[in-house]
Write a structure and sequence with these properties.
The protein is mainly α. It contains eleven helices and no strands. 34% of the residues are buried.
């Protein structure tokens, strides 16, 4: 069973630490997805990688729409940092890998549709829910995503495939060119989590929603691995 109860944690444990600990099991399960393992092993064609990016495009489209709507919200707004925006980079990668017709070639899976529907039902009206999904996706992209980028560049040889393309062609989604210092940004992000004005009950809800986010994202990976 995945732990969500924070009551047993010492009172001096920062919420960012408690959140990480409470979601670690499902975080690890997502990393062990067979699809991700085969992708990072270079066992899949590039089209399967493009299909993966197309699913993310649908997810970030909703997250960034919610971020724009919640920009002035006192709780969610500070997390909605414009420098994190991923849609332009995702679109550039997909146009490079799949051509102008990538939307027709790489349709969303049922699991992606389920995640998108959940995001629309959650993120626009509940700041804590938005933060939970934002945390799972963006902080993951800034952390493990950087390792994934380097592996993908190596195993798929994008620099050789697209010698006249832009820097990091094919993996621009993982490059946060508008952040001056990713390490410092992640530190500030965790400080935002620690100081969010949530009581114990709301923190429990945010933890539970972050675990839901991991489950839904893992389902997307599994739907591609079939």
């Amino acid at each position: 069973m995945v732990p969500t109860n924070l009551d047993s944690a010492p009172v001096d444990v920062a919420f960012s630490v408690a959140l990480k600990d409470a979601t670690q099991e499902l975080h690890d399960a997502a990393e062990r997805s067979p699809f991700i393992g085969r992708l990072l092993g270079g066992e899949l064609p590039v089209d399967d990688y493009a299909r993966f990016l197309a699913q993310l495009h649908d997810v970030y489209e909703v997250l960034e729409e919610a971020a724009a709507q919640l920009a002035d919200d006192p709780v969610a707004g500070p997390f909605a940092e414009p420098a994190l925006t991923r849609l332009p980079s995702l679109t550039a990668d997909l146009e490079l890998l799949g051509g102008a017709g990538w939307r027709q070639r790489f349709a969303p899976t049922a699991a992606t549709d389920a995640l998108v529907d959940h995001l629309r039902a959650t993120c626009f009206h509940w700041p804590g829910g938005f933060v939970a999904h934002h945390y799972v996706r963006y902080l993951g992209d800034l952390s493990g995503g950087q390792i994934i980028r380097r592996i993908l560049e190596r195993v798929y040889g994008f620099a050789d495939r697209y010698p006249s393309g832009p820097a990091h062609a094919g993996v621009r989604f993982f490059v946060f060119e508008h952040l001056d210092n990713g390490v410092q940004f992640k530190k500030r992000y965790r400080e935002l989590l620690d100081h969010a004005p949530w009581d114990a009950a709301e923190r429990e809800r945010v933890v539970a929603e972050a675990n839901t986010a991991f489950r839904l994202n893992t389902a997307v990976f599994d739907s591609l691995g079939g």
